[in-house]
Structures are given as C-alpha cells and as structure tokens.
Amino acid sequence: MSEEVSLILEDATEGMKKAISHFEQELVKIRAGKANPQMLDGISVDYYGNPTPLNQVANIAAIDARTITVQPWEKNMLQPIERAIINSNIGINPQNDGAIIRMFLPPMTEERRKELVKRCNAEGEQAKVAVRSIRRDAIEQIKKCQKDGLSEDASKDAENEAQALTDRNITLIDKLLAAKEKEIMSV
Predict the structure, then answer these.
(1) Among the residues of the chain, which ranges form H helices?
(2) What is the rounded CA–CA span in Å between residue 153 and residue 59?
(3) CB of 74 within 8 A of CB of 104?
(4) Each residue of 101-157: pLDDT tens digit?
(5) Which one, of 18, 81, 94, lies nearest residue 51 by Cα?
(6) Mode of pairing for the β-strands spanning 50-53 and 44-47
(7) Contact 62, 68 (CB under 8 A)
(8) Domain range spanning residue 12?
(9) Tens-place pLDDT, residues 55-104
(10) Whole-number Å distance between alpha carbons of 27 and 123
(11) Where does residue 104 fall: left (phi above 0), alpha (psi -120 to 50 degrees), or beta otherwise?
C-alpha cells in the first residue's frame, strides 16, 4: 500500500476516533438517574464579563446518587452560577443556600426514560453519520490517488480497509448505545 493511501486511512482512523469520543462525551451529559458532575460540563458562567466554564469557578461534586453540589470559590459567584444552571436547560432546579448550590435530581418516570433513550439514539445516529462521512471522504481521496497512478487492486484494498474501519466504529457506537440504554432503563 502506498504511503499516500496509508496517510488517508490514518486520517480516517483519527477522525473516526474523534467522532466516537465526541459521542461518548454527549452520552455522559445525558443523565441516567444518577448524579454525575460531568452533567454540568459545557455550562459557562459570566465571570467578570468573560464566559468561563463552570468547573473553573466552582467545585462540583456528586455527594450521593441524587445530589450534585456546586461550591463557588468566590461567594459573589453564587447568583451567576445559579442563573447559568437555570439557563442551561438541563432540567434540574438549583437550590442556593447562600454558601453552596445543591441540585436534587428527581426520580425518572418511564416516559422521561424513553425520551432520554430517543435522545441517545439521535446522538448515536449523528455519530454514525460522522463516521460514514469520514469514510466517504477517505474513499474519494483514494479514487483521486487511483487517477494519479495507484493500481486498481491497491485502490480496492484501501477502500475495503476504509469500509472495515467504518464497520468497526459503527459496531462500537451500537455497543455504547446499548450500554447507555440499559443504564437509562434500569430503575
């Protein structure tokens, strides 16, 4: 296999790994009934006029299976943090006691669980589309190489390798989805 084709497949592998890791991060944000400090990742707080990630202005901890605490490092940050959590639309109401913010996760109903499974499936579908898009780009690059003198056999082998890579990653996405669905649906 030529060096150029190897680079194309390497780039595809790298891109697919990024798509999978992004998918895993999105799954972590979808709560499965257990308190997880990572649920608050992606929330930015107005810190003296600058949007700053919540975990850079406060200590976030899950003290039990249903409670997350946010303890700001500066007392005057309580209000902006509380506002940011409310505006983030994660479905949890923060309770501010003047020193610490507590968030109690309500028990999930069957309907809410099904809703979360649908959301997980949508995220999984996006990840699969990303992986397939990377495969399509890799195959287009391989075909360009074939026009530039790569043998037909080498081209077909490279395309088959790109397809095998795609199949492995799609299978991995399905496994991650099944595990998350099981986690969500277990009471």
Answers:
(1) 3-29, 78-87, 110-147, 152-185
(2) 57
(3) no
(4) 888 887 778 888 888 888 899 999 999 999 999 999 999 998 888 888 888 888 899
(5) 81
(6) antiparallel
(7) yes
(8) 3-29+109-185
(9) 888 888 888 878 889 888 888 888 888 888 888 777 778 888 888 888 88
(10) 8
(11) beta
Distances (CA, A) of 150 to 34, 140, 155, 157, 164: 53, 13, 7, 11, 20
DSSP lists the bridge partners of residue 117 as none
pLDDT, tens only, 167-177:
999 999 999 99
- Name the pTM for this structure: 0.70
**Same domain, yes or no: 136 and 180:** yes
Identify whether residues 22 and 70 lie together within a single domain.
no
| Nearest alpha carbon to residue 165 among 137, 131, 142, 140 | 131
User: In this structure, are 116 and 179 located in the same domain?
Assistant: yes
* 180 and 118 both lie in a single domain: yes
Please, what's the b/e burial string for 93-119 (b: 16 or more CB within 10 A of its CB; e: otherwise)? Answer: ebeeeeeebebebeebeeeebeebbeb
Structural contact between residues 45 and 77, judged by C-beta atoms closer than 8 angstroms: yes
C-alpha–C-alpha distance, residues 24 and 102, integer Å: 26
